Amino acid sequence: FVEADGSRQALTRSIGALAALAAAALVAVGNGLPSNLRLSLAANVAVSLLGYIATTSIIGALGDTFVKANLRGIDLNKTTTKRDAAGNLVRPIEGIAIPESQGTVSAAVFILVLSVFIPFAFATYDLERFPHADMAEYLAAVLTITFASFMGFADDVLDLRWRYK
User: Fold this and answer.
1) What is the dihedral of CA 109, 110, 116, 119, to 10 degrees?
2) Contact status, residue 51 vs residue 113, Cβ threshold 8 Å
3) What pLDDT, on a 0 to 100 scale, did the predictor assign at position 126?
4) DSSP state letters, 85-153
5) Model confidence pLDDT, tens digit, residues 96-146
6) Mutual orientation of helices 35-68 and 103-122 as an angle, nearest 10°?
7) How far apart are the C-alpha atoms of 36 and 125, rounded to whole Å?
8) What is the C-alpha to C-alpha distance for residues 112 and 106, in angstroms, rounded to an integer?
9) Average pLDDT across the chain, whole number
10) Could you give the CA distance from residue 67 to residue 98 in angstroms, rounded to a whole number?
11) Is the dihedral of CA 2, 3, 7, 13 positive or negative?
12) Nearest CA among 101, 54, 46, 48 for reference residue 73
């Protein structure tokens, strides 16, 4: 178990380092942009990094809660999953429970990040030239992602049949 925790921490650190590098590259690119777009880019980078931090910490904190709520599964490719001498899975499948439906946490944070970003994306426009069509398109995308996320969670919890999806 120590090896798994170490590799998970290494993966988290690597992703964090890549995200920081990408943010630095975006800031460097932003130097050539007009000032109104620089504000949007800086806000986007900052809110995205906060979203990453929130997602990783919430998933880590709620993993046991999801398992206790029976939103769990078994990783079939782990060595701890019970197999017979030939290497075939033994039924019923036994192994270490891992939380499922964690995409709900990621989706909720993503929707929150998109919602917080709205003022930064449209703040520089005056009322006479405000891009109403662009904002309507943005809000439609947020609403679509919200409904798709809800449908995914409902499918995980209710085990919906394909014809109802």
Assistant:
1) 180
2) yes
3) 83
4) TTSPBPSSP---EEE--THHHHHHHHHHHHHHHHHHHHTT--GGG--HHHHHHHHHHHHHHHHHHHHHH
5) 888 888 889 999 999 999 999 999 888 888 888 899 999 999 999 999 999
6) 160
7) 9
8) 10
9) 86
10) 7
11) positive
12) 101
Nearest to 146 by CA among 111, 103, 113: 111
63-84 pLDDT tens trace: 899 889 888 888 887 878 888 8
The pair of three-digit structure tokens given for residue 133, joined into one six-digit string: 């069509």
Give pTM, 2 decimals.
0.74
In terms of Cβ atoms closer than 10 Å to its own Cβ (0-12, 13-18, 19+), residue 130 is: exposed
Concatenate the DSSP letters of all residues of 3-47 into one string: HHHHHHHHHHHHHHHHHHHHHHHHHHHHTTS-HHHHHHHHHHHHH
Omega of the bond prior to 92 within 30 degrees of 0, cis? yes
